[in-house]
Amino acid sequence: MISTQLDVSAAIRDLDDRQRNQIPFAMSQAINDTVAEGREQAQQGMRRDLDRPTPWTQRGVLFRRSSKRNLQGAIYIAPNRWEYLQYQIEGGTERPRRRFIPIGLGRRNKYGNIPGWRTKISKLLAKPDHFQAEINGTVGIWQRRRRGLKLVVAFRKQATYQPRWRFFRRAEKHVEKRFPILFERRLIRALETSR
User: Taking the CB of residue 7, how many other CB atoms lie within 10 A of it?
Assistant: First the structure.
């Protein structure tokens, strides 16, 4: 979670009481503007730092709006996307829930994924000359051939990642740079329209 505190005392120093009543409204609007822009920035950063993220993955970057009563906004990643994006942000070792990661299963789509890989594995294992086993330390689907065995699909038990997507750092920089500008703009507008 990103937490930033900004000093807006210079912007509100010369305001009277009536004008100060507009501050929570202007602050809430500026927070909402900042997190909406931040979401767009995060999605652009994802496309720049990661290898062809799917539209579904990109839509996983969300934001929560603030209100006058709750002056907190947030840019975050949907939990079902965080399950795999956390390795792109923080690095680490992924141990899949299904016990393995298939390698060499077939053609990848334009996003680098293998569509229908579970069905492909089932079809391979349904063939009489294919079987799943660990041979010489390599787990995978093997094919019996006249001249021995051929590894068709290898299974890895884990994958190690280095951090690639600088989500938190970029979001913090965005908030620090844009919030004061957006707050001043919203405050001026609120003062102009107040009665």
Answer: 7
DSSP string of 109-161, one letter each residue: -TTS--TTHHHHHHHHHHSTTEEEEEETTEEEEEEEETTEEEEEEEEES-EEE
Contact between 46 and 111 under an 8 Å Cβ cutoff? The reply is no
- Distance from C-alpha of 6 to C-alpha of 134, rounded to nearest angstrom: 57
- For tokens 């594995």, the residue is 121
| Coil/strand/helix, residue 189 | helix
What tens digit of pLDDT does each residue of 19-43 get? 778 888 999 999 999 999 999 999 9
> Model pTM?
0.72
Tell me the domain boundaries of the chain. Answer: 9-94+161-193, 101-157
Per-residue burial over 156-182, b if 16 or more Cβ lie within 10 Å, else e, is eeeeeeeeebbbeebbeebbeebbbeb
